Amino acid sequence: MSIEKLPDSWLKVDVGNVADIISGGTPKSGVIENFTTSGEGIAWLTPADLSGYKDKYISNGARDLTEQGYSSSSAKLMPAGSILFSSRAPIGYTAVAANKISTNQGFKNFVFTSDIYPDYAYYYFRSIKHLAESMGTGTTFKEISGSAAKKLPFIISPLAEQKIIADKLDDLLARVESIKTRLENIPEILKKFRQSVLSAAVSGRLNSKHCPMKSIHVGYGWPHDVEGLSHWVEYKLSDIIKIVGGSQPPKSDFRDVCVDGYIRLIQIRDYKSDNHKVFIPRDKAKRFVYKDDVMIGRYGPPIFQILRGLEGAYNVALMKAVPNEEVIRNDYLYWYLQNFNIFNYVESGSDRTAGQSGVNKKHLESYPMLIPSLTEQDEIIKSLEIFFSYAKSIELKAIDALNKVNNLTQSILAKAFRGELTAQWREENPELISGLNSAEALLEKIAAEKLATGTVKKRAKKTSH
After folding, report:
1. Class of the 216-371 domain?
2. Can you give the pLDDT at residue 292?
3. What is the pTM of this model?
């Protein structure tokens, strides 16, 4: 965040000049009497309590400290309104204390006088998260020390303007979160859209040129409720598709580096990663897959992953679905196997080996299928490609938009603490940013109050709770 260009009525200081920085503590974790249920003892936070936490204020963490746990540790109660800022694992989680609360040693907590509006300080510390991270040191994990925390910059604006800034950020960032939530929901919407399209494709509803097909209800057993007349033909999966299981070569054939005469051994774990490649001699490969072949992931969860684009030998984690191309196109098979009905059918008859679910080959081969003519399959494939291309386009645009929205929050925060969100307000209210209302006067007042009351360490003695 750039803090070089500030309004004339603002000041930049080290935060240690205007706030007390207080660390936390943890009692012995092996003593169960040191802890109690959240809400029943002394409120206590760890950085994990702020992971994924989106509210501004926080009252307590996953568990509280007992009187014994609090007294036996270096934890201190922070007053309501304190800024709770995680200083390690990770750096930069931020919240405002809704009530008196203590933290573990993974925090540097900032306690201001009443001359700094808590919501303003909360947003400010969110805006300098990356700066704080850059000041972290350590090998196991980065941590910002107490001395470094004192040197973090802090922007003082007039008190009235602090409230205006916080209110504007409440409104703007709430809108950003709303947009973000909608964008984050798009993948699930598209997933349902794809399943709807696939369901339509395999039930004769995607191609309106032909009469409706007869319907098959697939439950946990054999299909029933077959109705109507149609040119679609009923098969069992084994009638038109050959399922070929993989083969596990002896370990003596494995190689870590590909050389002439060796091919890659395909496993589920390799499908999306190149980190675990194993090669075997071509003449030892009993089962081989090409990029156009349709593969079925046998184990999970999730089981029944439909894969394509692989090439090499494959082991028992995969099965190849080989179509009778006089009845069913390879491309149609690829789409057909992804419809949710067959997934549920396979799941209901899955094997369990050593606690792991797997596809029962015989159960899969009993799956009832209604198959249209090859001509109609070609039409359906074209329609599917159009629909899925459309969905992919939307997905890519949504990802791009979400990336921009994620960057938007920091952009808005940066603008706020450069004074850009309140430029017009300052022009309209000069009396609220000058004289006794100026940031300079406010800084003098803070210094006087700190001198008169002493440090927060005195206010946060063990007797204060």
Report:
1. alpha beta
2. 95
3. 0.73
